[in-house]
Amino acid sequence: QSALTQPASVSGSPGQSITISCTGTSSDVGIYNYVSWYQQHPGKVPKLIIYDVSKRPSGVSNRFSGSKSGNTASLTISGLQAEDEADYYCNSYTDSSTWVFGGGTKLTVL
Amino acid sequence: QLQLQESGPGLVKPSQTLFLTCTVSGGSISSSTYHWGWIRQPPGKGLEWIGSMYYSGSTYYNPSLKSRVTISADMSKNQFSLKVSSVTAADTAVYYCARRLSSSSSVDYWGQGTLVTVSS
Predict the structure, then answer these.
(1) I need a labelling partner for A54 at 20 to 30 A (CA). Which of A65, A72, B45, B90 fits?
(2) Best residue in A99, A100, A101, A106 to probe B by mutation, most B CBs within 10 Å?
(3) pLDDT at position B88, please?
(4) Closest Cβ opposite residue B49 in set A48, A87, A100
């Protein structure tokens, strides 16, 4: 299975909105609503921020939102804050009953 | 509060077998509500799903690692384990154990991670 495709880096200024894409195939993202997103600060454990495409765990800011269209899932962060600077990973279920991660996106808050 | 803790050698020689254990407290790995699995992250690189298990004994593995990986459980100790055989330097990574809600993509609890270095 191939890793999901994410941009290597994105950037934005405080207060702005950014979107990170996660492109898969008709064998994973395209046919299941089992896509999740994780935020990872340097040296820290990944943290779940979105699951099942667009659901937000308790305690996660509503500035984080998720969506999906076809084979591409997206994570949008609105009202960017300095603390949002981190690496972000998407994850999807596949038709082989396995899971696959994206390569990760480094978010820089300018 | 659920806690997961990885344990095992931090250094493994090439061609040998890596063995890690995840001890779960505050919850039961015998629950039908969750899957339990392993994820790794080579230094400076991204996350890689290794595999997972269900209380029924079902296991699921990353196709690229399947021939070398085994995940098993000791229900009496509330632990599950990872075995990776014939390791090379490419297996050097931080290894995380984690819990996923069944019928969901939610990996909501992670261990702190343990660095395993493959080197002679």
Answers:
(1) B45
(2) A99
(3) 98
(4) A100
Average pLDDT value for residue range B29-56: 96
A101 and B47 within 8 Å at the Cβ level: the answer is yes
Map residue B89 onto helix, strand or coil.
helix
Which one-letter amino acid corresponds to residue A74?
S
pLDDT value, residue A1: 75
Residue listed under structure tokens 């089992």: A34
Q: Is 80 exceeded by the pLDDT of residue B70?
A: yes
Q: Which helix (H) or strand (E) holds B3?
A: strand B3-7
Q: Which two three-digit tokens encode residue A58?
A: 């308790």
Question: What are residue A41's DSSP bridge partners?
Answer: none
Quick one: which of B119, B108, B111, B112 has its CA closest to B33?
B108
Question: Residue type for A34, please?
Answer: Y
- Contact status, residue B35 vs residue B53, Cβ threshold 8 Å: yes
Minimal CA separation from A95 to chain B, in Å = 12
Mean local confidence (pLDDT), A80-104: 97
Q: Give dist(CA A74, CA A67) in Å, integer.
A: 5
